[in-house]
Amino acid sequence: MNLSLCALLSQKTAKLRFILWLALILASIATGFSLWQSGARVQSDILAMLPKVSESPITQRAMDQVEQQLANRVYLGLISNNEQSAINAAKLTIQTLKQLDSKDPAFINISSADMAQADALNQYYFNHRFQLLTLSQQQLLQQGQWQQLTQAALEKLYNAFSYANSELLSRDPLLLYPDSLLALAPSQQLTVKQGVLIATIAPSNNQPLRYAAIVMAKGSDSAFNPNAQQQQLSALTLAFNTTKSQFKEIEIIKAGALFHAIAATDNAKKEVSSIGLLSLVGVISLVWLAFRSLMPLTIAVVTVSTSLLFAVVSTALIFGELHLLTLVFGTSLIGISIDYCFHYYCERLTHPSDTSEQVIKRIFAAITLALITSAIAYSAMGFAPFPGMQQVAVFCAAGLLGAYLTLVLAYPTLASQPLNNANQALNLASRYQGFMLNRFTPRSLIAKMGLSLGVTIFILTGLLRLTANDDIRQLQHTPTDIQAEENQLRTLLSGGTDNQFLLVTAATEEQVKQHLAELEPILEQAKQDNLIGNHLSLSRFLPSQKQQQLNYQLQGQIYLQHLDEIIATLGLDDNIKPELIYAYQAAGSEFISAASFLNHQAGVSFKPLWLAADIKDDSGYGAIVLLGGIKQLNRVAALFTDNANVQLVDKVDDISRVMGHYRQLTLALLAIALVVAGVIFSFRFGLKLAAVVVAVPALAALLTLASLGLLNNPLTLFHALALILVFGIGVDYSLFFAESTQQSKGVMMAVFMSAISTILAFGLLAFSQTPAINAFGLTLLFGISFTFLLAPFIQNFTRNPL
Amino acid sequence: MKYIFSLILALLPLLISGSGFAADSAEASYSELFNKPANNADLLNLSQQLSPSAQTKGSFSQYRYLKVLKKPLVSQGEFIFSKDLGIIWQQNSPFASTLILKDKQLIQIDSQGNINVNHAEQAGSANMMSDIMPKLLSALLSGDINQLQQHFELSLNLDGKPLATEAGIDLNTTVEPTAQWQLGLKPIDPMLAKALPKMVLAGKQQIQTLVLYSANGDRSQIEFSALDESPLSSQDKARYEPSSVGTAP
Fold first, then answer.
1. Regarding the domain with residue range B21-84+142-238, which homologous superfamily does it belong to in the CATH classification?
2. Is the minimum CB–CB distance between A169 and chain B shorter than 8 Å?
3. Of A291, A589, A689, B65, which sees the most CB atoms within 10 A?
4. How far apart are CA A151 and CA B143, in angstroms?
């Protein structure tokens, strides 16, 4: 092994290796270029990094349909003291949005009140009027009280402001249909003026009564797609500016995923540039201060660039895209890949007379072991169900491999130039280690026991206070002003629509319809109990066939038995009689079915709420009931626990549960990784030293967890993932110390520089506004600091074997 | 949404048969009126002439001409309007029924004495009555031309010929058939305009007639009489609170 290694790393192969390295770089660039040409892009869709949850086929279909329906919707409220101004402003906004690029529109379905929809509903249901009755009409007819209905019709007839008119009377003499049509309309606190939806805002202490004109639109592409986001944002900005230039006093509020996504993208971009830049500047000044030479800096830049090139190209090659979050986490790669460079140069400083090859040979074992353990750590991270996290794992592993290959292949040629004499830093590192070891190594038994006891108490108290929170909603950091606007608009739209919905399933269409009808009183009660704000069900639109048959039979009393009396009582023209009877008899089988309704213009917008039987998954029929303004999710869920046909689908909760599961799994993987690393190390160092080498990152992890507990920072999957990285980096530190038996000032300096650069990069991540990144950074800040403090003490075991 | 549906209901004839506006004799007599856009000076004159008042009460006779009916529906009753309290529209013959509009409530009392209360929010202005009527009557009876201009395109004929009713119980026959002002109203809201394309308000010192045209040629004519603008008595005020008010299910 030593012989072949010598041959491999000998002077003679240096040129060959350098050419190989250059070839690799060129190949990577070519691959990267072709990937970019074929459309690989930076993906900033937050949804793309969420874990996949396995659901039954029909539930999955329901989720997809709901997501399709609700995704990319934008709601605007144009508020004014003057109702007419609000209406005109809304019209102008709609007009401006519609006029924009018609070939590639930013928004589709730009509307306020949906007049065409109401029109279509009327057209559809009027033809089915003989199958429709309201509950009170049913009851009256069941009691044979047709005279009472006639009297009510007569009263409406006398009202000049009612909807009784000649056309309607000649087709529906008792005016029964209008009530059925009205029952189809969802109850909303909104009115319509000149085609514009208007909500009134009650006067508050410093505001008079105001009017909000509502405008709705659907983004033609995902709000999380950066290009679409930009397009939609500029369309809205133009519309807002146009509107505000004409209506100065108009206040515009907005809601929708778009605005969350824009805030998240802006934030991520800002953080990537600021954290990345600060990290880079910090590292450069660190190198300059330590080596007082431009050469190591150049080599460091080459190493980091190669590392990033490998990382980006491999990730794009495997995933076809690069997630923005990968880039954010990936900035930390700068901190890790540069460690290899530090080790090389610190070793050169320690052995000024060695050639480049000799230095590489000295650190080869440590670097290779470091690469292997880091690879173990990253593959553990890759087990997480987050596509985004898998990307981070591939990104970092590929990046490290790039740095490693640069060191082994290119350093002999590139970094052969001897260093300036810069012993100052080396001596400083050595003095620091000496100070730490002399001052803080416990000598007496009492001191040892005291220290162990103190550390144990610290860890135990911390761990006992440690809680976990896997709610994915905390992943999204939304600025308060955006949230406030959204809440205000939601209130105006009586609760909006929540992510949770009910799924009603059964073997036949008729059964689903009947279950939907049974659900109505339960949901009405839930609304009265203030559990939910509103719900949208197909129940109103799709009465069961059984009910339709009954309604038809009941109306027989009107058209077959008492028509003469009714016509006489109302004073109607006798000519209408034959046509009425004919229409009634012809409509005997005109049933409202899901297929006919949903394919009619009236029902198209309700299509996402219906699930027809699918032969592929043999799942039967299903219907979705959307819920809005849910106040007590637990109690809503409890309403349906005993109901085999109704299921509360809560994707957010499902994903959160998966997150929790993988948090535990990741921590378990960390423990396994520690054991595996220990086993690998024991072959090289023997059992005792291997145990010490592993104990450093293990103790660092425990101390980090304890610190998080004491800070009341609830544990998430991202903390766990960061701990894996702490292990990956931290085990390198102890490895290098363990490898360098006597002369350790080079290692101390390298670890010192590595820790500072890593803390620079990750310490900045801890200041991120995005909770996930913040958790990641904070954990690494603690973990690396603890490892850095603990690692030098390994020297106690290598110098004076126990 | 409910509101849209209520308008759709009013539009039913159009949607069902597509029959357009059928001009009848009564409409013809106003045809000139709608060619005379109102100018502000005349409107101001008119509004001053109407001497806005905070309350009005009086009697009405209503004639409904529906094509499908063998003969017109004639009804009589009384009304009370108050800017603060709302409107009471009470039909006395051929049967009793009452509508009370107040505080966003629509209270209906039918011929059997059943009381039905709709809250405007709940009902979502289910009936055109509850949304258009208060504004319209409030503006009409208090002579608030500004309010009318916000919702209607106005035309004015200061020298119109009174319209006769076919039922022969024309209250105007007792008065000399001298010239009267006629105010034509076309709703600005397109949906409302389809449902109620034209209205004519006519009068002399006071309001005399309101004619509502629907799109299919049906027509309603309301004649006002015995208008009294003196403050409401406590008895009148009490009528806004019908006893044993039941809430709609």
1. Lipoprotein localisation LolA/LolB/LppX (2.50.20.10)
2. yes
3. A291
4. 36
